[in-house]
Amino acid sequence: MKIFLITIIISLQLNSFSQTLTKQNHAINIAIRTLKNDKGFKTASIGFFVQDINSGEVISSLNPDLSLAPASTQKLITTATALEILGSNYKFKTRLEYIGKIDKNTGILDGNIIIKGGGDPTLDSKYFTQTKTQKFLDNWARAIYKAGIKYINGNIIGDASLYGYQTVPPKWTWEDMGNYFGAGPNGLTVHDNLYTIYFNTSSVKGGKTTITKIEPEIPGLKIENHVKSDAIHSDQSYIFGAPYTYERYIDGRLPLNKTNYEVKGSLPDPALYAALSLKKKLKENGISSGKATTFRKSRDLQKSDTLKHILLYTTYSPELKDIIRITNFKSINLFAEHLYKQSQLKLANFNSETGDDKFIKHFWQKKGLNTDGMFLFDGSGLSRYNGITAKQLVSVLKYMKIKSRNSEIYYTSIPLVGIEGTVKYMCKGTSAVNNMRAKSGSLKNVIAYAGYVKTKSGRELAFSIMINNFNCSSSLARKKIENILTTLADFNK
User: Fold this and answer.
1) CA torsion sign, 367 to 356 to 323 to 329?
2) The pTM is what?
3) Chain segment 205-232, per-residue pLDDT in tens
4) Residue 225 pairs with which residues in a beta bridge?
5) Which of 26, 107, 111, 393 is deepest in the core (most CB within 10 A)?
6) Residue 8 domain flag
7) Residue 235 belongs to some domain of the structure
8) Are 335 and 475 within one domain?
9) Torsion angle of the four alpha carbons 48, 54, 55, 61, in this order, in degrees rounded to the nearest 10
10) Same domain (yes/no): 228, 259
């Protein structure tokens, strides 16, 4: 009897493994088994799922229901959700307003100018031709002049209250938030919420570095520099500093023999920077004003929000479809966080105290997706607390391809492997080039890819592979995953 029970248990275990690695495609299964058994992935957790979009046939899978950190492949869920909730033609808007009275004889505004943030991530952004020239400041100054205002007997106020004042997702790490990729969403975002530090580095390994300038100028910003020069080829420095604080500490290493080497950090207070920028522009145009400040910095100013606001000018963002394309092509964390917040705002009647932080999960539940094990704490995938399964990500991809009214817009927002975006240099010289669209994702010891592939046999597949806690270099892990992606493109059944 005991022998019979042992036989049953072994049989069940083998059946479980055969179900995990399905038998539909021998070559794909060999590729994923080879990866699984590689010494560099001995300690890793791997989630893999491939499905035919049209027939629903599962082509191959390994731990498809294992919840893993998705890194930036999470942007595929965020952008899909935003498209469905907001619509492809949606535009963010920033309102320039005033409160008080304008004396038509003297041109004196006895009141304040308000920059009412609407969550636009593209104001003065370098990623769009129409936004990167600070033209918005000229438009605002012109609108103030046309209103007959020649002197402002009051303040320039940046209002970033739309998303509340917790501008960094709580689950981000201290190491991330002071850097360019850790620029958090803000109700009044400007200049991609970034500034640039320029360094001269030494010719000696371990030598000191010197900060030559900071652009744009951030009044009050102080940086304690501990960066050393080293025989490396990329920026390996980190800026430490919390939102609204103007003392920053930078440590790490930069390449040898560099002049004006650029390192980007996150603006301490984007709303204040926007107000300062407008004050400066008005002064250049002969219009004086009081101080530049924000609603957050003064409770007295917050009381003015009960007064009537008169619209002077509205600045619109590019359409959502264009923002989403840049988000997925360039993997812009800031844009993804704004899409997350704005979708939450519309769908969940968001406020900073009680907003539904599980709204994406609830949204896809209503679409029929099994969301067990889905944990999303931001929109970009920067948080290591995030968790989704390979099957869930494929389910979103499948829905967007065959059911969404935004199918083509979403599909083309994902870059072509070997051609563009963050996957431009992958799978060169293989059948994946021009036939596969993929979003990459990476964190320390996390690598992931997800997207669509048109196979040699003409089938359309959606796929997701996520690997956490591998024990080799990221570049080596990427090369090994390329073999799997190429095998998917070569699928000929």
Assistant:
1) negative
2) 0.92
3) 999 999 999 999 999 999 999 999 999 9
4) 250
5) 393
6) no
7) yes
8) yes
9) 0
10) yes
